[in-house]
Amino acid sequence: MVVFQRYAHVYWIPLFPIGKTGATQCSNCKQVLQKKEFSENLKASYNNLKSGSKTPVWTFSGIALIALLITWGSVVGKQNDKKYAEFIENPMRGDIYEVKLANKHYTLFKVDKVVGDTVFLFMNEYETNKSRGLSELKRKGQKSFIQEHVPMLKADLKIRLEEGEIIRVERD
Questions:
Q1: pLDDT, tens digit, for every residue of 42-62?
Q2: Phi, psi torsion values for 47, nearest 5 degrees
Q3: Is there a contact between 20 and 13 (Cβ–Cβ < 8 Å)?
Q4: What span, in angstroms and rounded, lies between the C-alpha atoms of 147 and 157?
Q5: Residue 54 to residues 9, 58, 128: CA-CA distances in angstroms?
Q6: Which residues are CB-contacts of 55 (< 8 A; sequence separation ≥ 6)?
Q7: 3-17, 19-33, 123-137, 153-167 — which is least confidently predicted?
């Protein structure tokens, strides 16, 4: 007499359940049959066993972790947007604006002075083709800024921020 053992395994990418499968193993010869090789009787037993096995709740923790990270990122992003809008509304000498240019390049503007609703900026003489290259431009210091004022209205700066041209504002 051949006795089969039935197994229902949960296959998952760590922390994400993606399904169940099964196999049988003969207790005598140790032959293993996969689901596609089951007889109708074994398929019925497998389906019965599969419907009775529950996926552990902890296997959904990856989905919860991703949802938490997305929520956290959204909250931090909104806080930064609010902070940058405040910095644009009330600019101060030394503020540095990370700017995305029309040709998909990036550069820096530095606030020199504010008179009424006009902000006088120094533009960086260098550009980079990637936003992460802005940190290198910052390391070059004051000497990389053209020492000629460019006037810009606060309203224009606000529009540039809203349109995504100003991507970040740093204040010392």
A1: 888 888 887 777 777 777 788
A2: -60, -35
A3: no
A4: 20
A5: 10, 12, 54
A6: 10, 17, 20
A7: 3-17
Give CA separation, 79 vs 40, 84, 85, 164, in Å: 60, 9, 10, 16
Tokens of 78: 């909104």
Cβ-contact 130, 158 below 8 angstroms? no
Single-letter residue type at 132: R
Q: Which residues of 126-156 are buried (b: 16+ CB within 10 A; e: fewer)?
A: bbbeeeeebeebeeeeeebbeeeeeebebee
Strands 106-115 and 118-123: antiparallel
- Strand blocks (E) in 27-105: 32-34, 96-100
